[in-house]
Amino acid sequence: MYTPAITGTGVFTPSETVTNAELVTAFNAYADLYNAKHADEIAAGTVEAKDHSSEEFIVKASGIEQRYVMVKDGILDPTVMYPKMRQRSDDEPSIMAEMALKAANIALENAGKTAADVGAVICAASNLERAYPAVAIEIQDLLGIQGFAFDMNVACSSATFGIQAAADMIRSGSIRSALVINPEICSAHIEWRDRDCHFIFGDVATATLLEREEDAAGPYFAVKSTRCATSFSNNIRNNNGFLRRSRPDGMKDRRDMQFMQNGRKVFKEVVPMVSQHIMDHMADEHLGADDIKRLWLHQANKSMNDFIGKKVLGRTPEPHEQPNILQDYANTSSAGSIITFAKHSADLKDGDHGLICSFGAGYSVGSVLVEKHG
Ligand code: COA
């Protein structure tokens, strides 16, 4: 058996941002247009008027201040309210492969490695651009990697489940190394016309290089162990899929074809599930709260992370013990905990332990316990 290690990470951040102020202005203009258009039905009580959104609510309820997006055009137009992307030909790289490539190259450089050192590619994300061929195989081709590649989707937990798959293959010897890549274009799956969730998501791509410990060219994080768990829930759901055309009204502009959630229930049910999951994982490894130097948590909601950190450590965590990046990136689905790890792990000392944990739709929760070396 070999010890798998995280030897490099990469974050590709899109150049466009949408601030809360821009978001709220666009939403309120959309709501005014909608209410004017449906004035008679609203007066008759058959259609509900849309309330305005507010910056104060967004920051207070979520901790999010802005988000990055791949394509800003359309999002802030009250007559559009989705990103308007250009059609790419089948002979040019797809948008997910393009952003994945940028994150992957940063991770390789960070690890002091090249594509020749990689044996497999896993593209793990909440949404995949097409049914087939796998985006991962396109990324593999663009990077010039031998071996194999596949896509997987476990929603917000895709990255940690992908890391578990790669780590287990490295441990068993079936591969020497793998890139786990998370290109997330959440701006295309949220409903910008729904004030309950229009502020939640942003776009990004992250990449994690895993290798045998002995192949590391610099400081690395040994993967001590991983834990994945799932439990079915309809509280976060998106009904879009290949059967859409076949169903009555499937092609209509339907609310359930974008991200939907019962946010309050998610909050209430996921916080205890994740806290227990992390504590069980630590107990299995005979680690107490004082043995964990840092938690790199999924980035959905600041209060959620505050609750989880407090439960796991048994006290209010210091900011450096449980860093957040969601104020800048919003919820980037599976990529959130990896951005946090990539940006807030270099200062850990030899022998320090930390834990990456993502959670979300499914429900799903995945944790990766790491130990710094070098
Ligand atoms: N602007 C102003 N008011 C808003 C608003 C907005 N954009 N969106 C909702 N509100 C209103 C609601 O209508 C509600 O009004 P009411 O009390 O009159 O009914 C009030 O603000 C509170 O809304 P609620 O949805 O209960 O807020 P919340 O405190 O639960 O926060 C979330 C909402 C989504 C931020 C929070 O529930 C959450 O983070 N849940 C978990 C999300 C998560 O992790 N999802 C995983 C996705 S992968």
TrEMBL record:
<dbReference type="Pfam" id="PF08541">
    <property type="entry name" value="ACP_syn_III_C"/>
</dbReference>
<dbReference type="InterPro" id="IPR016039">
    <property type="entry name" value="Thiolase-like"/>
</dbReference>
<dbReference type="InterPro" id="IPR013751">
    <property type="entry name" value="ACP_syn_III_N"/>
</dbReference>
<keyword id="KW-0808">Transferase</keyword>
<feature type="domain" description="Beta-ketoacyl-[acyl-carrier-protein] synthase III N-terminal">
    <location>
        <begin position="150"/>
        <end position="217"/>
    </location>
</feature>
<feature type="domain" description="Beta-ketoacyl-[acyl-carrier-protein] synthase III C-terminal">
    <location>
        <begin position="283"/>
        <end position="371"/>
    </location>
</feature>
<dbReference type="GO" id="GO:0006633">
    <property type="term" value="P:fatty acid biosynthetic process"/>
</dbReference>
<keyword id="KW-0012">Acyltransferase</keyword>
<dbReference type="GO" id="GO:0004315">
    <property type="term" value="F:3-oxoacyl-[acyl-carrier-protein] synthase activity"/>
</dbReference>
<protein>
    <submittedName>
        <fullName>Beta-ketoacyl-ACP synthase III</fullName>
    </submittedName>
</protein>
<dbReference type="GO" id="GO:0044550">
    <property type="term" value="P:secondary metabolite biosynthetic process"/>
</dbReference>
<dbReference type="InterPro" id="IPR013747">
    <property type="entry name" value="ACP_syn_III_C"/>
</dbReference>
<dbReference type="Pfam" id="PF08545">
    <property type="entry name" value="ACP_syn_III"/>
</dbReference>
